[in-house]
Design a protein that fits this description.
The chain is 26% helix and 23% strand. The chain has 358 residues and is α+β, with helices and mostly antiparallel strands. The strands form three sheets. The chain has a seven-stranded mixed beta sheet. Strands 1, 4, 11, 12, 13 and 14 form a six-stranded mixed beta sheet that branches. It is built from eight helices and 15 strands.
């Protein structure tokens, strides 16, 4: 409540009312999605935009998240004769993957004596929005960076898995489903080693130049091979809510745009007529700024199927905000925390492809 004193002077909120005002304001900001108006040097939060809002796989319970994959058939089919003796053998064709959820925290603080709290009304809304947006920018910046990269080794049990954990390079000169175990993870992705189970691997090819006879040809081959369809209809562990996307760095997409210009004779007067319009098999090729600084790849082109690769979140902990609470030893300073339990999950590596320079 805002009181009016003698002479029409506006009196500020009482300390007991400030925290309620902050809590109400931030909850309204969450509902309106006000944080999308963010200040950052990053030109596009590609993974956040593609995967975060409404497209996560929700899990119940805080234990390891598990999935099953059948990596071979049982080799029982063959010719038989009349009155022949049955042959019987057992072939174990199932593997089990699991990952542990990871936790991300962000926060903001304020002092109840801040001048904006004494002005009341819209000043409080604007002040809380500034604090809230600053926290959300920090969260999305971290999530975008982590989403394209990976922990250094399996000793890191805090950093979430990203694309670089799931979609990995193979050996130079190879082309096919040869994505190796991630560097630093000898037991493989989700605890399944590609050295032991060769079919548990993404498509990989290296290239030397962004030319039709090199990179583009290898992208075509990859696209044909990752469009796998089972011959038997059955339920599958689909985790995402959208289909495929193609992502690369600035230097590669620039050369692709020049290739596109070269194959179009009538470009008019626009010197950059194909910028942002590059397609491959009708799928946009998207520039992902965080890949520019990523050291896991060299000039990568990633062909990703988001039906099988997405962020998993713990239900109820995908966007949790605490009410304001007192900071120890600072009785007029309050803190608000955002807590998210999340990790990236892939249930079918053979739907993913990577082309990178040697």
């Amino acid at each position: 409540m805002i009181a009016i004193g003698e002479g029409g002077t506006t009196l500020g909120l009482q300390y007991s009312e400030i925290d309620d005002a902050v809590n109400t304001t931030q909850q309204n900001l969450v509902k309106r999605g006000a944080f999308v108006d963010m200040q950052t040097d990053l030109t596009d939060h590609v993974l956040v935009r593609e995967l975060w809002k409404g497209r996560q796989k929700k899990f119940v319970g805080g234990n390891d998240w598990r999935f099953d994959a059948q990596i071979d058939h049982n080799y029982s089919a063959g010719p038989v004769e009349l009155y022949g003796t049955d042959g019987t053998s057992l072939t174990d064709t199932m593997i089990n993957g699991k990952i542990s959820p990871r936790h991300i925290g962000a926060h903001y603080i304020y002092d109840q004596r801040e001048p904006d709290f004494q002005r009341g009304g819209l000043a409080i809304v604007d002040y809380v929005k500034t604090k809230y947006v600053g926290m959300m920018v920090s969260f999305f910046e971290y999530l975008e960076a982590a989403g394209w990269s990976k922990p250094t080794t399996d000793a890191d049990t805090l950093t979430p898995f990203g694309v670089a954990y799931w979609v990995t390079p193979g050996t130079d000169g190879q082309e096919g489903f040869y994505g190796l175990n991630p560097s630093g993870f000898s037991s493989g992705r989700a605890g399944i080693s590609s050295s032991t189970y060769a079919r548990w691997a993404n498509w990989y090819a290296d290239y030397d130049a962004v030319e039709k006879q090199d990179l583009i040809r290898k992208m075509r081959t990859a696209h044909r091979n990752i469009q796998f369809r089972s011959v038997v209809s059955h339920a599958e562990p689909v985790v995402g809510g959208m289909r495929n996307g193609i992502y690369t760095v600035d230097s590669v997409i620039g050369l692709m745009e020049e290739l596109l210009e070269n194959q179009n004779m009538n470009l008019g007067n626009d010197l950059a007529s194909k910028d942002g319009r590059t397609l491959f098999k009708s799928t946009p090729v998207t520039y992902a700024p965080k890949l520019d600084a990523n050291t896991d790849y060299t000039d990568p082109v990633l062909m990703l199927d988001w039906k099988w690769l997405t962020f998993g979140v713990l239900a109820g902990w995908e966007d949790e905000l605490t009410p304001p609470y007192m900071v120890p030893n600072k009785h007029l300073v309050r803190r608000v925390d955002k807590d998210v339990t999340v990790n990236m999950l892939c249930t079918n590596l053979r739907k993913q492809a990577l082309m990178s320079k040697t």
